[in-house]
Amino acid sequence: MLSRAPQQAVSTEPDSQALLVALSNIVYRAGGKRLLDGLDLRLFAGPKTVIMGPNGAGKSLTLRLLQGLLEPQSGQIEWVPGRTASRSALVFQRPTLLRRSVAANLRHALAVYGVPRLERQKRIEELLELGDLTDLRDQPARRLSGGEQQRLSVVRALAAKPRILLLDEPTASLDPAATAAIEALVNIANGEGTKIVFVTHDAGQARRIGDEVVFLHRGRVFERAPADAFFSQPRSAEAKAYLQGRLLLG
User: Fold this and answer.
1) Are 73 and 194 in the same domain?
2) Which secondary structure element, helix H or strand E, spans residue 229, and what is its range?
3) Does 90 fall in a domain?
4) Are residues 109 and 62 both part of a single domain?
5) If exposure means fewest CB atoms within 10 Å of the residue's CB, which of 91, 136, 191, 193 is most exposed?
6) How confident is the model at residue 10 (pLDDT cuts 50, 70, 90)?
């Protein structure tokens, strides 16, 4: 069991990549506890970033702060100016869909994002095709299977053409086929220029998805490394313990 904090996080940031957002000395408290304790994290365009760590490490909280759903008590979140429709979009573990058809969910999202009315139908068709949902366009969204609902959630998030797509364990309750479909969508989005930040506890998925791994513990970054290096030769004692299935105390 490990509970000590390192003197300095072990970190290898991507080289020659455009900075998108920097979180500096972020502190977030709730219930009398520091859930984020001086978090420093910079996210760059390009590589798919997987965030891992034990329960309570601050993974989901970090995504919610990036999305603007919460505000830190101290520290700064600084976005580099960009011209995309949205800075970020967040996909949760459990889809939250409107009581409308598949196509109507997308139409509503496009309206919220300010896409001109004359452009919406073309964009809806593109998103339906991307998510392999064209044949389900008129079906009530909440009656879809879990995998279909999550595909809809992902393409709805992509409707905003975000600079960063944040995904909080989006396949945790899905079967292998549905998981593969979501991972394929993530890869397509990244190939088209969307930064991916993906929270998962699944080491196999992290190996498939991630170009780099950010390991959180006790509300801070304890290690950051290319995915292959993280899994083959983790450099922090805490990451080694986590990958070996040993308990990490908060």
Assistant:
1) yes
2) helix 227-232
3) no
4) no
5) 191
6) low
How many independent structural domains does the chain possess? 2
| Residue 42 covered by a domain | yes
Count the helices and strands in the chain (H runs, E runs).
8, 10
Domain housing 209: 1-84+166-250
139 with 188, same domain? no
User: Do 149 and 175 share a structural domain?
Assistant: no
Residue 182 lies in a domain: yes
Give the pTM.
0.91
User: Exposure string (b/e) for 105-137, b if CB count within 10 Å is 16 or more?
Assistant: bbbebbeebebeeeebeebbeebbebbebeebe
* Separation CA 92–CA 96 (nearest Å): 8
Residue 15 pLDDT > 80: no
In this predicted model, what pLDDT tens digit does every residue of 87-135 receive, in sequence order? Answer: 999 999 988 899 999 999 999 999 998 899 999 999 999 999 999 999 9
Structural domain includes residue 92: no
**Mean pLDDT, range 65-82, rounded to an integer:** 94
d(C-alpha 196, C-alpha 160), whole Å: 14
d(CA 119, CA 131): 19
Tell whether the torsion through CA atoms of 106, 109, 110 and 111 is positive or negative. positive
